[in-house]
Design a protein that fits this description.
By secondary structure, the protein is α/β, with parallel strands linked by helices. It folds into two domains: 128 residues, Aspartate Aminotransferase, domain 1, CATH 3.90.1150.10; 244 residues, Aspartate Aminotransferase, domain 2. 44% of the residues lie in helices and 15% in strands. The chain contains 14 helices and 13 strands. A seven-stranded mixed β-sheet has the order 2-10-9-8-5-3-4, with helices on both faces. A four-stranded mixed β-sheet has the order 1-12-13-11. Helix 12 crosses helix 13. The protein is globular and about 60 Å long. The two termini are 35 Å apart.
């Protein structure tokens, strides 16, 4: 067994390119220096490019959960009515965050593995004649199940309502799928560094529209460290309100440059190709996919094996090949495994993971496929 050969095929942390690893290894510089300000200015410009927005994109020292929490509490007041889409672990979490802050939460649910129905949002929003609904909180790519919710349709209904803010968890869709903030009219987008950004965990991002800043003026929920007004003032001067993770930002500086070189369309097309190859391979192995093709997340593919144990598959891939796959969460523990294909992932990584998966299946006595069928199916996608 070779050491230091770990291959992360999970939804986060995701693999980190060498340019970012080398940036992390540098001596930290002072965060109040002109040198750091110059880096921050470039990072901020590139974050706006990635979010396809003219609005503010702010950086917090936090995980994706911290970014979403900031995205909720800066624009609402106690007792405000919010709709929360819940069809997996993260949608459920945003309901819990909103309840913890005394918001009046109405959950719109779908079974785990199914997408949320935009028509239910339309109905609830249309029925709200008094404009009591102040926000709709949605997880775009539900990492726990591998489902991509229909952002375009849901945000359209929020716009028709006119009053409610669209608050989006784009933690595993930003940088993998087209999320044009300004064109769609999304008010708040939260994301985290260890996903499409291709750097280790530790930074959260919140993009804020002009409409959300209007709501900020009258929002009464308590906040201090997560008060986005402080970050807005500092970011305008290319500085930070508190001590940031300097080296992570230097690494982000490197990966955002890489992303700009690849180009948004190429990034989205690559993730689409990786998703399709992974799904075609799983089908060729006669393993059931947990989410349907028409709502497949670009970040992760969930597999629900019915004739072989999900945890045993993960165990063999880890022990034999040093490939990490993710398991199921909550009631899906042991029932599914999840193959990540987000961020710094290439065609080669998918072929390696599928080849290793075939070995594991054979070792477990699963005979539901022709040897080589998974790799061949992925290869067909990559060759087309």
């Amino acid at each position: 067994m070779m050491n230091d050969k770990l291959m992360l095929m999970i939804p986060g942390p995701t693999p980190v390119p060498e340019a970012a690893l080398l940036a992390l290894a540098k001596h930290p510089i002072g965060h109040r220096t002109s040198e750091f300000s110059n880096i921050l200015a470039e990072v901020t410009a590139n974050l706006k490019w990635l979010h396809q927005t003219e609005s503010d994109v702010l950086m917090l020292t936090a995980s994706g959960t911290g970014a979403v929490e900031a995205g909720i509490i800066n624009f609402l007041s106690p007792g405000d009515r919010v709709l929360v889409g819940c069809n997996g672990k993260f949608g459920d979490r945003w309901g819990e965050v909103a309840e913890a802050y005394g918001l009046q939460v109405e959950k719109i649910t779908a079974e785990w593995g199914q997408p949320l129905d935009p028509a239910v949002f339309a109905q609830k929003l249309a029925a709200d004649k008094d404009k009591q609904i102040k926000a709709v909180i949605l997880t775009h790519s539900e990492t726990s199940t591998g489902v991509l919710n229909d952002l375009e349709a849901i945000v359209g209904h929020v716009k028709e309502h006119g009053e409610a803010l669209m608050i989006l968890d784009a933690v595993t869709s930003l940088g993998a799928y087209n999320v044009p903030m300004d064109a769609l009219g999304i008010d708040v987008i939260a994301s985290g560094s260890q996903k499409g950004y291709m750097i280790p965990p530790g930074l959260g991002f919140v993009a804020v529209s002009a409409k959300a800043w209007e709501a900020y003026k009258t929002a009464k929920l308590p906040k201090y460290y997560l008060d986005l007004g402080k970050y807005r003032k500092s970011t305008a001067k290319n500085t930070t309100p508190f001590t940031p993770p300097v080296n992570l930002i230097v690494a982000l500086h490197a990966t955002l440059k890489m992303m700009r070189e690849e180009g948004l369309e190429s990034i989205f097309a690559r993730h689409q190709r990786l998703t399709q190859a992974t799904r075609e391979a799983v089908k060729a192995l006669n393993l059931p996919l947990f989410a349907a093709d028409n709502c497949a997340s670009p970040a992760i593919t969930s597999v629900a094996p019915d004739r072989v144990d999900a945890e045993q598959i993960r165990s063999i891939l880890k022990k034999k090949f040093d490939i990490a796959l993710a398991g199921g969460q909550d009631h899906l523990k042991g029932k599914i495994f999840r193959i990540g294909h987000l961020g710094f992932v290439s065609d080669r990584d998918i072929l390696s993971a599928i080849g290793a998966l075939e070995v594991a299946l054979r070792e477990l006595g699963y005979e539901g496929f022709t040897p080589g069928a998974g790799v061949a199916a992925a290869a067909r996608v990559f060759a087309s």
